[in-house]
Amino acid sequence: MIDIRDKVKCSGCSACYNACPVTAIEMVEDNEGFLYPQIDLEKCVRCNLCEKVCPYINAPVLSNDLEKCYTAYNTDEKEREISSSGGIFILLAKEIISCGGVVFGSIYDEEFMAIHSYTDSEKDLDIFVGSKYMQSKIGHVYTEAKKYLSDGRRVLFVGTACQIGGLKGFLMNDYPNLICVDFICLGVPSPRVWKDYLRTYFNNEIIEYVNFKNKKLGWHSFSLNIKTNKKNFCRNGRQTYFFSGYFKQLYSRPSCSNCLFKGDDRISDITISDCWGYSHIAPEMDDNKGLSSIECHTVKGLELFDAIKRSVCWKESSIDDVKKYNSNYWLSAEMGKDREAFWEDYNRLPKKKLFRKYCSPERPSLFRRLKGIVKHVLGR
Ligand SMILES: Cc1cc2nc3c(=O)[nH]c(=O)nc-3n(C[C@H](O)[C@H](O)[C@H](O)COP(=O)(O)OP(=O)(O)OC[C@H]3O[C@@H](n4cnc5c(N)ncnc54)[C@H](O)[C@@H]3O)c2cc1C
User: Fold this and answer.
1) How confident is the model at residue 380 (pLDDT cuts 50, 70, 90)?
2) Among 47, 162, 179, 377, which residue's Cβ finds the most Cβ atoms within 10 Å?
3) Ligand 1 centre from 137 Cα, in Å?
4) Kind of pairing between the strands at 102-108 and 155-158
C-alpha cells in the first residue's frame, strides 16, 4: 500500500485516491498546503491498487509518435485576450465539444482556489481559460473522465504533465478517444501560500475576479489582476510578492524538483506553452498580445491541431528553439536557496513580514529601467 516517505516522490496526482475501491484513501494537506495520500488502515483491503496506479512507483510510459512544432495564436481577439498565452486551449476545447466531447481542466472554486472540473458546453469554457498559479485539486475527476471514455465520448484532459501521468496511471488502458494536453511548467505553487496572500493583502474584501496573467500591460510583462468589492489591483506580475516568491522557487511542490515528465519523450498528445523567444522564433507574429508554442507528439494531437488551424495564425517551428528559450520543457524546477528558511518562518512571522522578507521583487537594473522608460516614451 502507498506510503509516502519522501515527498519528492509524490506529485499529489491523486491516482491512488481515485483508484481505491474501498475509499480508504484521503488526500490530506501538509503544512505547505500540498495534498498527500493518507490511508485508513482499518478500511484498507490490501489490494495494492494504489501502488499499481502510482506514476512514481511504476515509471510512466512516455513516447512520441512524432514531433511537430508550431508557433501560433488564436485569431479571435477576445478569446486571445482572456487567455494566458496565445489562446490555443479554448480552440482545442471548442473543437472537442463540437464533436460531442467533454473537456476537463482547471477552474476556480468560490474562494479562488484551483480545482479540476469538466464541461461539455461551449458557453462554460470561459471559466477554464487562463493559468491558475497553484496546484489544481484533482478530486474525483479521473473517475468522471473514465466514465465518459467508457461511454465512447471524446475526452480532452488539460493539466500539468504529472496530472496526466496520474490520469493514465489510473486508467491503466489506452483509450483512443482520450486526448491529453499538458503545458510547459515551472512548477506548481502552494495553494496555502496563495490563500494566505489573498488573506493578507485583500483582508475583509470580497474577491470578485482573479487573472494571474492579465495582458493590460501586454503579454511580455503580464499583470496580476485581482478585483474585489473595494479595489481593482492590477500590477506587473513580477513586481508582486506572490509571483516574486514563486519565481524564487520558495513554494513550488517538492516533487517539481524531481519531475518525471520533462524532456523529449512526453506523456501528452500536445504540449502548449508561451512562446518565449518570440523575438527570435517569430518576431513577425509577435504583437505583445500572446503567442503560443504548440508541440504535437502524436498523430491524435496533430489531427486535433489541424482541425483548429482555420482559427489560428500559425507557422511551423522547431523543438530545438522551444527548448532553447523555454528550459522548463526539459528541466525540473530548482528549489530556491531560501525555501527551507521561508517555511521555517511561515508560522512564526506575521504574513506581511514574511512576504516582505522573502518575496520582495528584485529591482530591475538601472539599464533595464532606462530601457523601459525609453520604450514607454517612444511608445507614446
Ligand atoms: C502552474 C503553471 C506553470 C506554468 N509554467 C509555464 C512555463 O514555465 N512556461 C510556459 O511557457 N508556460 C507555462 N505555463 C502555461 C502558460 O501559462 C499557459 O497556460 C499555456 O501556454 C496555455 O495558454 P493558452 O492561452 O493556450 O490557454 P489558457 O486559456 O491560458 O488555458 C490554460 C489551460 O490550463 C489549465 N490550467 C490552468 N491552471 C492550471 C493548473 N494550476 N493546473 C492544471 N491545469 C491548469 C486550464 O484549465 C486551461 O485548460 C504554466 C501554467 C501554469 C498553470
Assistant:
1) low
2) 162
3) 15
4) parallel
**What are the structural domain ranges in the chain?**
7-53, 68-188+252-329, 191-251+337-369
User: What pLDDT digit, counting tens, does each position of 367-376 carry?
Assistant: 777 776 776 6
The Cα–Cα gap between 189 and 34 comes to: 9
Q: Could you tell me the distance, in angstroms and rounded to a whole number, from the CA of residue 180 to the centre of ligand 1? A: 14
Mean pLDDT of all residues in the chain? Answer: 96
Q: Which atom of ligand 1 is nearest to the CA of 103?
A: 49
Question: Whole-angstrom Cα distance, residue 234 to residue 217?
Answer: 9
Binning the chain into helix, strand and coil, the percentages to the nearest 5 are 40, 20, 40
How far, in Å, from the CA of 113 to the mean position of ligand 1?
15
Of all protein residues, the one whose alpha carbon is nearest to atom 26 of ligand 1 is 88
User: Which helix H or strand E contains 183, and what residues bound it?
Assistant: strand 178-183
Mean pLDDT, rounded, for 225-241:
96
pLDDT tens across 137-192, in order?
A: 999 999 999 999 999 999 999 999 999 999 999 999 999 999 999 999 999 999 99
E strands, 14-120, in order? 25-29, 35-39, 68-74, 102-108, 114-119
Kindly write down the DSSP assignment for every residue of 239-303, as one continuous string. GSHHHHHHHTTSSB-GGGGG-TT-SSS-SSSEEEEE-TTHHHH-GGG--SS--EEEEE-SHHHHH
DSSP, collapsed to helix, strand or coil, labels residue 117 as strand
Going from the Cα of 213 to the center of ligand 1, the distance in angstroms, rounded, reads 10
| Residues ≥6 apart with Cβ < 8 Å to 98 | 122
Atom of ligand 1 nearest to the CA of 90: 29
Cell numbers found for residue 269: 498528445
- Which of 88, 116, 131 should be mutated for ligand 1, with most atoms under 8 A from CB? 131
Mean pLDDT of 247-256: 98
Cα 235 → chain centroid: 21
5, pLDDT greater than 70: yes
With a Cβ cut-off of 6 Å, ligand 1 is lined by 83-90, 105-106, 114, 128-134, 136, 158-160, 183-186, 188, 272-274, 276, 292, 326, 328
Output the pLDDT for position 63: 81
Check pLDDT > 80 for residue 365: no
Q: Residue 6: how many CB atoms within 10 A of its CB?
A: 10
For the cut 90, the answer to whether the pLDDT of residue 378 exceeds it is no
